[in-house]
Amino acid sequence: MSLEIVEGDLLKQSVEVIVNSWNKNFIPWWLLLPQGVSGQIKKEGGFEPFNEIRKKGLMKTGSAVFTSAGKLNFKGIIHVAGLNIFWVATEKSIRESTKNALRICLNKKINSVAFPLIGAGTGGINKELVIKFMSEEISKNDFKGKVILVLYKKKA
Predict the structure, then answer these.
(1) Cα–Cα distance measured from residue 51 to residue 63, given in angstroms and rounded to the nearest whole number
(2) How far apart are the first and last CA of the chain?
(3) How far from 132 is each of 9, 45, 117, 127, CA to CA, in Å?
(4) Are 60 and 79 in contact (CB under 8 A)?
(5) 120, exposed or middle or buried, with CB in 10 Å at 0-12, 13-18, 19+?
(6) 48: buried, middle or exposed (CB in 10 Å: 19+, 13-18, 0-12)?
């Protein structure tokens, strides 16, 4: 397994799948104001991944589900419930989300995946801690492919 930490745009990474730090899927996606990774996916990829995730029902905190990538040029999107019911991330939700996303990669024979920093935005966790939690989970996982952690960089 190779781990890279880069600064940039998650949707511009050269990988097979990307991870969307989602919520527990209890509020309909169309009621949420597009922001962060989800907002970018909706803007560039369309609504199809969110129509698919709606059909999955309520997600347990830390769980992950796979959908199509809509209009994006990826094999799919893995949506993780990185936030609890109060829209807050925890060490456990970050670690479980990372582990469960990589489990999907293993099961679907994905060779490369790009993650945002789960819980570092809306979730309120310090980005250095998020990198630590995610890196530790990635290093002890059986996934052998390429993993990129993408630190969001605002466009000038």
Answers:
(1) 18
(2) 33
(3) 20, 30, 10, 9
(4) no
(5) buried
(6) middle
* Chain position carrying tokens 């994006």: 72
> pLDDT in tens for each of the 156 residues of the chain?
789 999 999 999 999 999 998 877 666 555 555 567 888 898 999 989 988 988 888 899 999 999 999 999 999 999 999 988 787 899 999 999 999 999 999 999 999 999 999 999 878 899 999 999 999 999 999 999 999 999 977 665
Specify the CATH class of 2-152 in words. Answer: alpha beta
Q: Which amino acid is at 155?
A: K
Domain ranges of the chain: 2-152
Provide the H-helix boundaries in the chain: 36-45, 48-54, 91-107, 127-139
Helix (H) or strand (E) holding 149: strand 146-152
pTM greater than 0.90 (yes/no): yes
